[in-house]
Structure formats: C-alpha cells, structure tokens
Amino acid sequence: MKKKKAGRKPRTVTVQRQEEVAKLYCQGVSIRKMASLLGVNQSTIQKDVKVVRKLWNEHHSNNIEAHISAELAKIDYLEQRAWLAYNKSEQQLDPDPRFLAAVDKCIQRRIDLLGMGKRSEETSGVDDRPIVAVVVQSRDQVQQVQQWSSIVEGKVIEDKTDGD
User: Are residues 112 and 160 in the same domain?
Assistant: First the structure.
C-alpha cells in the first residue's frame, strides 16, 4: 500500500484544478489572476498550464494521425477500384484512360495528404508564397530589403521613400 506524501493534495484535486486552469486559460485569464482565483501559487498554475498544453498537443496529434489514416484507407480503396476497372476495360480491348486518371488522382491526393509533394507556381498556376509587407524609413533600409528580397526570390513592389 502506498503512503501519501505529507502536504500533497489528492490527485482528483489536482485534476479538477487543471480542468479549471484549462477553462480559464482558454478565456485568456492571466497566470496571476488564475492563481488568485484558485488560491494557489503562480508556479503551480504555470505547471498546470504546461500539463494542460501537453495533453492538448497529444490529443490533437493523435486525432490528426487517426484522420490521416482514415483518409489514406479511403484513397487506397479508390485506387484499388480504379485499377480493377482499368484492368477490366483492358480485357475488352478498349482500355479506358479515365481509370488511369483516377489512379493518378489517388496518388496525388496521397502525396498531398502526406505532405510529400512540393507545389510550385509552375505546376499549380498559383503563387502560394506568403506576401510580406516591409515598411522602411530610409534609402539604406530600401537597399537592405532589396538585397534580402533577391535572396528569397521576392519582388519589391513599391519604393515610397523620400530619397533620404
């Protein structure tokens, strides 16, 4: 039988407090205010927030993996059916290229879902690079931005300096 350490609160009290901390945290309540409301030290609240955030991260990463697995299974099923249909159409001496297009679409969906493909402006037709606006105060800063933008293949759209 385990002995309770002196000065420690039962586990259920800690879990209840962490649930309350999670609610307050989501409402944007400060650590100091949470400590005051719950009658504990700020360090206790900081530890609780750390535990709560870790639990949230674990929960969400598990859910994402489950969703990805489910979607991959659907894609696998569709690809298998497309191959079966294509092979059947081949036996009739009139292979239907639409089934190969379906296989290709399944492969592309799998690549996208797993983050294995790199879409570029040339293949997607859309420039999906982030837009960055930079405000500068002097001509020197304009030159620095131009150097930086050439490194990351960006474009300087407008120079609004007075010619400092």
Answer: no
